[in-house]
Please model this.
Amino acid sequence: MRAADRAWLAMAGGIIAWDIACPRGEMLSDASARYTKSHPLLWGGTVVYIAGHLIHIWPKRYDLLSVLAAAVEDENT
Model:
């Protein structure tokens, strides 16, 4: 298992643990619903951007997360 695989499992475990143990009304989906009401364009754009990043539909040069990761990698080499 690679490091990124372990990171995905840790995130999934953390999300599940939070949603089981959180106070009423504080599930991550509840927060998402609040963000949708208060900042529909910003939150919707964020969700679309992250989904696009995860399925690699954005060209790397326009994908902020890819650009930042490449910059950090360049600094560490």
